[in-house]
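Working notes for the structural subgroup meeting. M.R. asked for a predicted model of this chain before we commit to crystallization trials. I am recording the input and output together here so anyone reviewing the notebook later can reproduce the run.

Input as submitted:
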Amino acid sequence: MNKLLCLFAFIAASSQISAQTGFTALKIIPEYPKQSSKLSFEYNKNYSSLIKQPTLNVVVYQFTEKGIKVLEPVITKKGTIYSGSIILDSNTNCIAFGFSSGEEKDMNGSKGYILPVYNKNNQPVDGYYVWASTLHNGYGEYLFGLPNDADKGLAVLDEGLKQNPLLKNNIGFFSSYLNALSRAKKKEAAPFIAKEMEDFEVKGNLNEAGYNTLIQWYNRDKRKAKADSLTLAMKAAFPEGDWKKNEAGTNFNKEKDLAKKAILFQEYVAKYPTTEANKFIVENFKSQMALAYGKAKDFKSYYEWSKELPKGTVARNNNSLAWAMAEADENLEEAKKMAAEATSYTKSEMLNPTEKKPDGSTTKQWEDQRKSSYGMFGDTYAFILYKLGDYKTAYPIAKEAATINKFKDAEYNERYAMLAEKAIPTAEAKKLIEQFVKDGVATAKTKEALKNVYIKEKSSDNGFDAYLSELEADAKNKKREEIAKSILNEVSPKFSLKDFEGKTVSLDDLKGKVVVVDFWATWCGPCIASMPAMNKTLAKYKDNENVMFLFVDTWETVENKLQNAKDFMTKKSYPFYVLMDNDDKMVADFKVSGIPTKFVIDKEGKIRFKSVGFGGNDDALVDELTTMIELAGK
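Returned structure, recorded in token form:
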């Protein structure tokens, strides 16, 4: 797998963002672009951070009332100037440009290339402000690498209110404003948010969306009585409102009994017939039913519920069930059938897609997504064939999956190595697996496969450990050099959180120790997947008083966050020292945009390393953190 991640009231005038943004490297024609019109642009790389790059990639993002639309305009190059044009949609509110060369991106000094679409009076259209704020609050980082900046996210909304104070009456703007206020000012924002909610409610004439926003924020503020009161008022005002449909959906999602779940589904579609607006919800419910029957090993019902689902959804469900059965070593023939169908479909889509390119993806991203799906599903299929002993059929499939991932994914390499050991000559298999070890992309099972071919060649395992250590040495040295180059020198944000027993722990308390901070959540799959490796790393340092591991539970939405985290750790039996980031303040202070994210802080309180996501290789994560801890300790 690739690295996974499981997205105030007073700002100084100097920090506000003018809607009429000027750029040094980018020129826009006309100066005030309008909806349903042509927009031309010129980008001079001589005035940008990409000045030394020979080629550039240009992507334009249109943000509309319906969502995002990615455009890849035809570019004309004349010297250092890259020019092109696009046609803006009739509902475009905001535009952003992405200029890059390989992995290097021009972020316009962390401000990005974000500009409004204007109305006939040359004022930004109302929808611009929410989109621009969203881009500064994390979405821009996801799309084109724009650094998170909560202050800018709030400032652009304040700029909108200066232009049009009535924007606060718009529930979409109001909700974004509360969120931006919370992110920028954190705890200081609480009284201002409370006053804003009171004022919004006092205006009266609340629609259902307005009620829902207030209910959400009162629950977030732990004012349950107030939230419950508004819920009753909303239901009385809108007896057949969306809340009723949402409630029916929630009841369906919660139900575990399959017979009862099926009845709830039939009741839902009878009351809310499938339309273009809700077809994805209905498809999701059908998919849930299919998967539930599949997990219950009622395959006849699984296939029956799958009949009307999109082929892509069926392929994903097939792969999910097939992988689970392979890991459990059960129903392998059924798993083989499912995996074969999923692999065949995704290979066909990779080569000759029948599905439309998503509006939010570039052509390359779409191609990569299709390749990734085929690689993932092919890997599952190869694993099942390996379990069934059909090594010759499985080998080329595993090879293709590993190749798609450029042999950088240790899990895919693992299946490839295990099959190479069985399906190809010993000398060839040995050379192949050796390279994985040398490159640092070998799991424990990959090394086990290498040991097997070593024994076949030598008729003994004598000398294997020394041989393996020699192979690993180059990879470890290379990785150490890469990690050393990534060393940071940033003062760590201060924090003060409580542990399971109510004891407060602060960064100041830990001065003189190397501190490893791991941001995680009980719902985060990649976080949970990384925990065995974190447990191994913790065990390495259990007797070292100069190293402290803090597992910070954050971004939880359950009512009792403390009990939820305690129950999770009890179930998993991990000896982790957990701190509770109940108001998500610490995760915001560290500017985390996705979890798991780990920081290594040195003895003086400076952040030295940051590791985002989990690549699926336990040994690699242990080695990575070990190196970071050692370097930070110096």
